[in-house]
Design brief:
about 250 residues; five-stranded mixed sheet; binds S-adenosylmethionine; rRNA_ssu_MeTfrase_I; 4pyrrole_Mease_sub1
Length: about 250
């Protein structure tokens, strides 16, 4: 059988494509792309001429079967999404799962990924982190998700779109309090790349004051609750002792 190459593409800056991604895209028999028009733009830029077929959220199920047949027949296929690493909040899960079940080789060609880019430059603890995907679109779900984070000791990371960034930050403030520390990574690797770090309250002031900052693509990083520092543990122990003397 052939191999499925899961190829990461840039999240903005086209120079972030890897040598290995380019040679893989050149060598495969064809490319399965989330959006064939976006794919053509990328391929044209690198002067790669290759057949592209659509593989997206709406045809993932039916398309996976066909792709599996072609892989079994010996075709090598590259899977790409619109930006960054496929399967990271992008199509591909069905295909990769089926390949694994059928013993077809799946080869990752790593590269850009917005969460990792944001974490690498945010200045928050990254030894452990939780990735929550997109912040829920509905307010109730959003408030509940953020409420849960008040107990999270490690960093949390979410994707957010331009349409809901203010609503999300507002709900984050409601659920976690204005003093919660966050970092926003916006338009990473692009011309207007911006990082803003501070309390939710400060971040809201900043973003509401400048419409331009509300545009584009966002990674929202939420610091974990104070990882019980030594002093905290001492205070807690003291409080516990004092409690015994309280009326
Ligand atoms: N597969 C992609 C990856 O590896 O990062 C993520 C795809 S997901 C459908 C798209 C979301 O990722 C955007 O709404 C945004 O939250 C985030 N994102 C993608 N590119 C970004 C960038 N250049 N700067 C900030 N966030 C970005």
């Amino acid at each position: 059988p052939g191999k499925l190459y899961v190829v990461a593409t840039p999240i903005g800056n086209l120079e972030d494509i890897t040598q290995r991604a380019l040679s893989t895209l050149q060598q495969v028999d064809f490319i399965a792309a989330e959006d064939t028009r976006n794919a053509s733009r990328l391929l044209n830029h690198f002067s790669i001429k290759k057949k592209c077929i659509a593989y997206h959220d709406h045809n993932e199920n039916s398309q996976s079967g066909k792709l599996i047949e072609q892989l079994i027949a010996g075709q090598n296929i590259a899977l790409i999404s619109d930006a960054g690493t496929p399967l990271i909040n992008d199509p591909g899960y069905h295909l990769v799962k089926q390949c694994r079940e059928q013993g077809i080789n799946v080869v990752p060609i790593p590269g850009a990924c917005a969460i990792i880019a944001a974490l690498s430059a945010a200045g928050v603890a990254t030894d452990q982190f939780y990735f929550g995907g997109f912040v829920p679109a509905k307010q109730q779900a959003r408030l509940a998700v953020f409420k849960k984070l008040t107990e999270q000791t490690f960093t949390s990371v979410y994707y957010e779109s331009t349409h809901r960034i203010i609503a999300s930050l507002t709900d984050l403030q409601t659920s976690m309090g204005e003093q919660q520390q966050i970092v926003i990574g916006r338009e990473l690797t692009k011309t207007f790349e911006t990082f803003f770090a501070g309390t939710v309250a400060k971040t809201l002031d900043w973003i509401q004051a400048d419409r331009n900052q509300q545009k584009g693509e966002f990674v929202l990083i939420i610091a974990g609750v104070e990882q019980n520092s030594e002093i905290d543990q001492k205070s807690m122990a003291l409080l516990a002792k004092l409690k015994a003397y309280m009326p």
